[in-house]
Amino acid sequence: MVAGELRAQSAMLALVRESRGMTQTDVAAAMVKASGAGVQVSQGYVSKAESGRLVVAGDRLDLYAAALSCPRDLLCLDPQVQGVGVGLIHHRKRASLPVGALRCIHAQLALTRVQLNGLFGAAGEGDLEGDFPRVALSDVVTAKDAARTVRKQWGMPAGPVTDVVGAAEEAGALVVLRDLESDLLDAVSQWAPGQVPLLLVNSRAPGDRCRFSVAHEIGHLVMHAEPGSGPEQEKQADAFASEFLMPAKDVRAEFTSGVDIAKLASLKRSWRVSMGALLRRALSLNAITEWQYRTVIIEMSALGYRTAEPVHVPLEEPCRVQSLVDRLMEEHAFTTERAASSAHLLPEDFVRLYREGNRLLSVNTPRRG
Q1: pLDDT in the model for residue 81
Q2: What is the per-residue pLDDT across 257-279, written as a single tens digit (0 to 9) for each?
Q3: Which residues of 289-323 are buried (b: 16+ CB within 10 A; e: fewer)?
Q4: Does residue 82 sit within a domain?
Q5: Is 131 helix (H, G, I), strand (E, B) or coil?
Q6: Residue-wise pLDDT tens digits, 315-335
Q7: What percent of the chain is modeled with pLDDT above 70?
Q8: 59 is in which domain, residue-wise?
Q9: How many contiguous H segments (helices) and E segments (strands) does the chain have?
Q10: What is the pLDDT of residues 277-325, one digit of tens each?
Q11: 263: buried, middle or exposed (CB in 10 Å: 19+, 13-18, 0-12)?
C-alpha cells in the first residue's frame, strides 16, 4: 500500500452494503462483475474486509465502490467521526417488519446523516444548533408532561399543530422525507452526541399518519436518551404524540355534544390526525363513553374506514434541507458535481435525491433480486 493512499473503513463498508440491502455474497458477485470477471472475489474476502482483517485500497477500492454504486471516498470515511456510529436509533414500525429491512433503513438513516453533514459543512453551516429539550421521565413526570413542556418551550398556541414537520425543523431538527420501500415502518430518528436530531420519514404513509409518526419520533428524541424497554418506550412515545397533537383540554371540549362519523370527519380536517386517533383520544380522556366508542367503531368498519379513511391530509414537506441545497446551487454557485462530492454521492444520485426530489432511496443502487 502506497503511503497516503485512500483505504476503506471496515465499518463503512458494512454500513453502505446494508443500506443497499445486499449480502456479502451479493457484494462479492458485484465486484467480480465490475471487474469484467478479471478478478475473483469471495464472500470470505468481503467478510474479512468488513471485519478489518484486510486492507481495501487501490484497484480493490475502486471495485468495491463500483459494486456498491458510491464514490470511493465514502467508503474511506469513519462512521464514528461522522457521528453516525453512536447514539440510539428510534423508529415507529410494525412488528412484522423483517430485521434485514430494518437494518437497511437504519443504514440509510446513517448515510443521510453523512450526506447532510457534508452539505451543511460545504455551506459553512456545520455548527448546527437546536432547541430540543431533554425531559427525564419519572414517577411524577409523564410522557404527557413532556409533550406539554415541548409545546410550551416551542411557543405553540393551544389547539391543533399547524405543521409538525415545520415545528421540528424550526427547533433545529433535520427532517428528510423518503420512500422507505415498506409500509411497515413510518419513521426513524436519531440524536447523536454533538449533532442535531435527524428524522427520516416514510413518504408512503398518509399525511395524518406521518404527522403522528413525526410527533412520536419527537417524543422518543425528547424522552429517551438511554436504552429502555422497547414496548414501554413505544407506549410513552405514543402518549407524547397524542398529547402533543391533541392536547387533552382542547380535544375534550370538541366532544361535549357527542360523536358520530360526520363529526370525526370534520375534526380530522381541523386537527389533521386520523379519525381513529381522535376517537381513541376521546375515549382515553373519558370525553365519550365506551358504548359511543364501540358504536362508531362498528360503523367505521362497515364503511371500510378502518383501512381507508375519508378526508385527505396532505404530506407535510420538509423545507430546511431543500433550502440548504438551493443556497449551495444558487448563492454559492456549486456545480452538481461539487455538491454531490460534498454529500459523498454520485452526481446522478445527488440530482435524484436532492434536486429532482425522487424519494426512492434505492433507485440506481444494487439490490437483491
Answers
A1: 66
A2: 999 999 999 999 999 999 999 99
A3: eeebbeebbeebeeeebeeebeeebebbebebbee
A4: no
A5: coil
A6: 999 999 999 999 999 999 999
A7: 94
A8: 1-77
A9: 17, 4
A10: 999 999 999 999 999 999 999 999 999 999 899 999 999 999 999 999 9
A11: middle
CB-based contact 199:214 (threshold 8 Å): yes
* Total structural domains within the chain: 2
Q: How confident is the model at residue 363 (pLDDT cuts 50, 70, 90)?
A: very low
Domain check: are 149 and 18 in the same one?
no
Q: DSSP secondary structure string, 139-199?
A: SS--HHHHHHHHHHHTTPPSS--S-HHHHHHHTT-EEEEEB-S-SSEEEEEE--TTS--EE
C-alpha span between 125 and 139 (Å, rounded)? 40
Q: How far apart, in whole angstroms, are the C-alpha atoms of residue 293 and residue 185?
A: 27
Q: Residue 61: give its domain's CATH number.
A: 1.10.260.40
Q: Which residues of 203-224 are buried (b: 16+ CB within 10 A; e: fewer)?
A: ebbbebbbbbbbbbbbbbbbbb
Please give the model's pTM, rounded to 2 decimal places: 0.91
How far apart CA 220 and CA 137 sit, in angstroms, is 11
Residue 304 lies in a domain: yes
| Domain-located, residue 241 | yes
- Same domain, yes or no: 58 and 39: yes
How far apart CA 190 and CA 179 sit, in angstroms, is 18
In sequence order, the β-bridge partners of residue 202 are 178
Extended beta strands in the chain, E state: 89-93, 174-178, 185-190, 198-202
**Cα separation of 354 and 341, whole Å?**
13
What value does the mean pLDDT of the chain take? 91
14 neighbors 68 (Cβ within 8 angstroms): no
**Contact in structure between 49 and 152 (CB atoms under 8 Å):** no
∠175-146-269 over CA atoms, to 5°?
60
Q: Is 132 left (phi over 0), alpha (psi -120 to 50) or beta?
A: beta
Do 105 and 209 lie in one domain? The reply is yes
- 42 is written with which cell numbers? 469471495
Q: Enter the C-alpha cell of residue 219.
A: 417524543
- Could you report the per-residue pLDDT of 182-209, keeping only the tens digit for each? 888 999 999 988 889 999 999 998 999 9
